[in-house]
Specification:
Blueprint: E1 6-11, H1 24-41, E2 45-50, H2 52-55, H3 60-63, E3 71-74, H4 82-90, E4 95-101, H5 103-116, E5 120-124, E6 128-129, H6 133-145, E7 149-151, H7 153-161, H8 169-176
Parallel strand pairs: 1-2, 1-4, 2-3, 4-5, 4-6, 5-7
Helix pairs in contact: 1-7, 1-8, 5-6
């Protein structure tokens, strides 16, 4: 995994979902750290929104960090929609970092579809949530069973940095403090 063959997909971190999500504020905050770190590293981003007419759009804290990254509307639970598949192929991506909601539904189905398509998938546990902690944990267990790497934001950023001489080291270090 390196910055040239990796993409981060933000899955359904939407306004109307937040009030019912467990630890939603912490997940949004940590996802923001992840996005800022990946942006400093030059890792491309994309996002999805599950039925935004009903669930609202991406929360402002995340939307502001996406810059010009594409945001795809969907009704499927999996975020591996045709537009995302085309984006991954066009950028010659082999690794996908997933952050978002809900761990045991949209995130899990996305992991299963990505793994079936041959992608390596990394899920920072601190950048995902469900309505209940038990459902989150069950979703993470299923992801591990499907071959995804369940990690954390800091580990993934440093995995991509690889060396303290990387030009983005100070930026990433300051983000995680």
């Amino acid at each position: 995994m390196n910055c040239n063959n990796t993409l981060c997909l933000i899955v359904d971190i939407q306004e109307r979902l937040q009030p019912v999500m467990s630890d939603a504020a912490a997940v949004v905050k940590q996802s923001a750290v992840l996005i800022q770190g990946l942006t400093a590293l030059g890792v491309p981003l994309a996002a999805t929104e599950q039925y935004p007419q009903g669930l609202g759009t991406t929360v402002p804290e995340i939307k502001a960090l996406l810059g010009g990254a594409p945001v795809f509307e969907k009704t499927r639970f999996s975020a591996f929609v045709p537009e995302v598949e085309t984006l991954l192929q066009g950028k010659n991506i082999r690794n996908v970092i997933l952050a978002g909601e809900e761990t045991h539904i949209c995130m899990l189905q996305t992991v299963l579809d990505l793994r079936q398509a041959g992608y390596a998938v990394y899920v920072p546990y601190d950048c995902t949530t469900s309505r209940s902690p038990a459902n989150k944990e069950n979703g993470l267990q299923q992801m591990r069973g499907a071959g995804a790497v369940v990690s954390n934001c800091e580990s993934l950023l440093f995995l991509l940095l690889q060396d303290a001489v990387h030009p983005a080291f100070k930026t990433v270090s300051n983000l995680i403090r």
